[in-house]
Amino acid sequence: MRVLTLGLGGNHGTGSGGYRTPVSLNAWLMAISREEVRHIAKLARLEFTEAEEETLAEDMSRILDYMDMLNELDTSEVEPMTHVLDLAHVVRTDSVEKRISQEDALKNAPDTDGEYFRVPKVIG
How far apart are CA 99 and CA 105, in angstroms? Predict the structure, then answer.
């Protein structure tokens, strides 16, 4: 079984400040504290009220619980993919084709000087 790791910091890291080691979800109690929410919010330069921090802590804990449930699935026979749909990148080949003549290009123009399109002046 694969274990997803997150570098959330808080009480699960290597101390105050600096880089924090990733935490295994299986070793976690699946509870995000308000301090961890504050830390993540600080990194994202967000500010929340205490009520919002509590709600976010609960929501994030539920998300991690769900992710832990997904870790229990056997994906050993599932091919890695970059997109959920089976798409092929189709690009048209570059080829030289017959160009339109200057006369045909200017035929339906509202105003020309005989050689070029004439348009209203837009820069003073």
Answer: 10
pLDDT, tens only, 73-116 = 898 998 888 878 877 777 888 888 888 999 999 998 999 998 99
Say if CB 4 and CB 25 are below 8 A apart.
yes
64 Cβ partners below 8 Å, 6+ apart?
A: 6, 25, 28, 30, 32
pTM above 0.85, yes or no: no
**Is the separation of the CB atoms in 4 and 22 below 8 Å?**
no
The residue to which tokens 């990148």 are assigned: 89
- CA-derived radius of gyration, the chain: 29
Strand runs labelled E in the chain: 5-6, 23-24
